[in-house]
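One such shown below:
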Amino acid sequence: MVRGGDHTVNYGIFQLAMALMIAITALAALPARVLLAPLVPQPEVLLDSIWAALIAVGIGGAAVAVLRPRPPDAPEFGPRYWIDRAKRDAGVAIFDRAFEVSRDRGADPLLVWARLVGEVMQRPRWMRWLEFQLARWRPATSVGVLQVPGSEAKTDIDSVDVGVSQMAGRWALVATEYGYATDYNSIWTTATEWNAEADYVDRVYSIHAELLSGCSEPSGWPGVLIETRRYPRRIALRGITSADRVACADPSRPDRQTEVSPSRRSDDGLWAFEIDVPLGVSTLELTAHTEAGVLATQVVLSRGELSWAGPAEIRPTTQPRSDSWTMTNADAAALPGASDRLRLATDSGSDGDETDPLGELEPSQS
């Protein structure tokens, strides 16, 4: 700004200076326009150049990604990658809900998880959110994370409740002479009811097999151990078994144990369980009660995660009580009215340690 002697702004001189600068700039632009015009492309040519550059960058980037060697720590784009990605996308709470409903409905939790992972890979979270919003305004053919048939909008939790209930009694886990395995025919029968594409069926099969390979199968124990689930205030052990009931206890405190029994079994007698484990212990004793007896296995935890399970051992069906004691003659003599019979037994020359002075007491009382 231009100020006068009294430090006030002289707007007349200021506006004249601005007009002079604009005129000089316009005069300089006239020859520059003529000189630089050949360097400026036409709009059509400019757009063609931009598209060509984008295509070249895309092809070049793809070539670099394919030809560049994969680092050792890069994830494999296989079943394990799909499982981890689906858990991040849908959330652990959805997988917990799927296990809970499959346990109550008598469905194979590994099969439910396999189908859940397959659907999440086809419809990520943003696509499910868009389908949910559209289903509120127009009828839909399938909704939710499990893509259950229906025309009304459903959340992922509602979709799991309905979808897993429709899979009640479906199992792809079978027992063989070499252990437990994935039955492809069961996978095909179940998966094709929702998606008949061969790629989808193969993906569900590979995911189920991957989930099963991550389970621990103790030798001689009737079932498999899937994983440990760490809740905010407790830790639970998940598994599948054919036993009548399952119990878990700290080996140092066998009198304190938790038990679970099946709410519904498969045709082969399999059922899923989730049992609480004692906090602060690294070794558990997991017992399976069967018609043939009680089979116990030692389960080792590492920071709350399932680490190892040993071979099963046969245990007696009834354990002696910790407060049991053996009655001796001295104890029997202290009973009311026992002094005369004890004296007769002693006078007869019998060994007091082997004779029942009352003739009607068992060697051990509880």
Observations:
- The radius of gyration is 38 Å.
